Amino acid sequence: MTRRLEGKTALVTGAGSGIGRAVAIAFAREGARVIVSDVNVAGGEATVAAIQKQGGETRFIRCDISKSSEVEALVRGTVEAFGRLDCAVNNAGIAGLMAPTGDYPEDAWDQVIATNLKGAWLCMKQEIQQMLKQGGGSIVSTASVAGLVGIQMAPAYVAAKHGLVGLTKAAALDYAKANIRINAVCPGVVRTPMVTVSTDQSKELEAALMAAEPVGRMAQPEEIAEAVVWLSSGAASFITGAALPVDGGFVAQ
Ligand code: NAD
Questions:
Q1: Is there a domain that residue 51 lies in?
Q2: Is the pTM above the cut of 0.95?
Q3: Is 175 a catalytic residue?
Q4: How far apart are CA 12 and CA 122, in angstroms?
Q5: How far is the CA of 4 from the centre of ligand 1 (A)?
Q6: Which one of the listed residues 104, 109, 121, 157 is annotated catalytic?
Q7: What ipTM describes this predicted complex?
């Protein structure tokens, strides 16, 4: 069977855990050379080891996406390592603390926006500049169902993910004629450390999260990765500016 990303060069942020790790592994399986990036070195190196075990070509570059100098170095390092950047996945993100809007601490708000919105834009900015030089590419950001509908007790996260969906649309229009497709995936509840850090403490919370999903279960990270592979591949050649729910029906309710 033809591999869907054969010969492509990819960059995945937040690839040291959860969805990003699943995306990096799926990209390598589909033939891409993958730069694994994360602020967490041990997590990133574990992803690299998993890709190498299946025979893939990969390297780790540490980067905090909220720091513009580190993001510049990340994209520069990607091009130095593999010559170009075809498929970028801006996936790194944090949940932030849970509190109602009127009580939300300002420092927690700033941290969530700096990572989930500004960080994704800093990455996009550098990726676009490289893709313009080489004549095209694909960018997929991991937004959330919280980028499409409101969620209680998460005002900064919801604002950042709505912002990321808006940024995706704006950037897609800016580069529609430049052969750069820019899309987002909007996962529902996915069984990753972002969620299990809480559900491992509370079976009631786990049951409530599963009940919130029309399909009655959480997604596995690999199910989100499949959508990202497809959006990044030539099969999605006429799709740009889209925010694709991958959510077990969550936003259809
Ligand atoms: P995760 O916590 O397992 O992985 C997130 C990764 O991002 C971690 O490895 C972390 O080190 C990295 N990261 C955090 N801040 C960073 C920074 N400043 N610079 C670089 N890396 C950083 O969580 P996940 O569930 O895999 O989340 C991945 C993305 O998916 C996030 O953007 C998240 O908001 C989104 N998402 C998750 C869910 C879910 O239910 N798990 C649902 C919708 C959207």
A1: yes
A2: yes
A3: no
A4: 14
A5: 25
A6: 157
A7: 0.99
